[in-house]
Amino acid sequence: MESQAASRPDGIAFSFLRDIKGDVFDDDLTYGQLRDSAQDIAEWLRVRGHGPGERALLVFSPGLEFTRAFFGCAYAGLIAVPAPPPGGSRASIERLDGILASARPAMIITDDRALPDVTEWLSERSDDHPPCVSIQRMEPAAGGGRRAPARSPDALAVLQFTSGSTSTPKGVEITHRNLLSNLNLIHAHVGAGEDLRGCGWLPLTHDMGLIGQFLYPLFVGGWCLMLPPLEFVRRPARWLALISEHGVTHTCTPNFAYELCARKVTDEQVAGLDLSRWRVALNGAEPLQAATMEAFAKRMSPAGFRLETFLPCYGLAEATLLVAGKLNGEPLVTTSVDAAQLAARRLVPGSPDDRAATLVSSGQVLRGNVLIVEPATGVPLGDRRVGEIWVSGECVARGYWEDEEATGESFGFRTSDGRGPFLRTGDLGARDGAELYVVGRIKDVIVVHGRNVYPHDLERAAQDQAGDLVFMSTAAFGLDGEHIVLIQEVRPPRGADAALAEGASRIRRELSRRAGTGKISIVFVRPGAVRKTTSGKVSRSAMRRLFTESGLTPVYQSLSGELSAGSTGR
């Protein structure tokens, strides 16, 4: 950022549009303004005794103030701890409480819009909480001067709390070296320059939003238009319209965003778009959905969008962000594999029929730092064998903040032949040469009669059985070692019972055929009931917990076996 500010101080780094129905940006921030503001914040912190090693909890409403605070912490040597603002669901409040307790920040930095909610949230916790200040009130001391940022590459830059898709969120210790290494890796795949024009709505509390959407455009000297996350969910077509209007070249979102656009954008809306300048559409959800990308590309092709614009990738917070990705401009790589052999953890070519599964490559591994390993023994596996993905190199974080047990469970592992240290990702995948295929999470795999059943396959199969029903998000998980439970969001039609009963029957037949078991329970819930992480991934562990603790309010359910003693009903 500093080099960009020195060479082009008047170049606009970020713009923000609070209401995406409008056409006028709420705020612009140049590279020079960002540098000067960050230095002022750093001086304010220094004058008050805050310095290297302390944590600052950054709790901001959507806007550009977060960017100033983040670099202000960097200049002062503080460790930034991005966190979501209070409000919303109980789960989001619990997540924020957990971050506060774990990080033990020296102070909380927020903005005027979020300050009342943050103050109320703190007052409900205890009187012994860190001081909280709005960034708009952080005026530097007169004559304080400005200094260069702290430059120790191995000092902590960020505590990036994981999204908690399979466990309690943990603070990943990311150093300045980790960030720089990962930004260079992203650049090797994306290859953008100062002509990068981004448009994103991801929260900056998530690794994809923080690094892919916020830091990478700064790294190459580009521009990014930021939007509030909820505005995209409400008006996905407007996001595409902004991409069209502003000649956006690069975006990064999870898979669900493209699926939402393909489903909700009308022919009339597509006719008014020009997406021909869109060069890179990063898709970071795992596992990737070929059907989603094909449907989006087909839907948007009249506007000039091309399938090869998609850049599938794989990563995780513990590796800073990116691990592998397609190279910009190259075609998508897919493979059709035998479903039964995939369940046995092998990628064996299969015919494109209902007994085959289509996998999308998450792209190429450029640095040779990814192994596929048998998780129980640490034995490296050959090409097209499914095992745990292990990662090494400068992108791998130091560990989890003040959690030796969790760090020991994921970091510092060596293979049976002594290679390492490696990060154990907990993800299942396979290599085929340089290509990496991600097939699921170890903790999410459902074992039925000795076969591995991947929940995302069941979720896709359930979506295909919607018929006249309107399905949204889906979560599938195993229970008690023999049952499969599928939670399906649905918008109930008038006279819903008969339609829902028939829909549940269709889903059960299809899932029974695929999983080889009749012990399948179907629960229909209203839209919004399926829990997701900050990046939009389904949190199956949370849904399992809600189901077992009777925390769901079904609109219809059909339970199987001992779960209901043979009963079916509301």
What are the salient characteristics of this protein?
570 residues, alpha/beta, Rossmann fold, GMP Synthetase, Chain A, domain 3, 4-stranded mixed sheet, 4-stranded parallel sheet, 17 helices, 26 strands, 23% strand, disordered C terminus
| Uncertain segments | 565-570
Give the termini separation.
57 Å
Percent range of helical residues: 25-40%
Report the portion of residues in β strands.
Answer: 15-25%
CATH class bucket of the domain at 2-249: Alpha Beta
Sheet of most strands: 4 strands, mixed
CATH superfamily of the domain at 2-249: ANL, N-terminal domain
Question: Could you describe the 3D structure shown?
Answer:
The chain is α/β, with parallel strands linked by helices. Among the domains are: 2-249, Rossmann fold, CATH 3.40.50.12780; 447-563, ANL, C-terminal domain (GMP Synthetase, Chain A, domain 3), CATH 3.30.300.30. The protein is 31% helix and 23% strand. The chain has 17 helices and 26 strands. The strands form eight sheets. Strands 2-1-10-9 form a four-stranded mixed sheet, with helices on both faces. A four-stranded parallel sheet has the order 4-3-5-6, with helices on both faces. It has a four-stranded mixed sheet with strand order 11-12-13-14. Strand 9 (197-200), helix 7 and strand 10 form a beta-alpha-beta unit. It is globular, with a radius of gyration of 24 Å. The N and C termini lie far apart (57 Å). 48% of the residues are buried. Mean pLDDT is 90; it is low at 565-570.
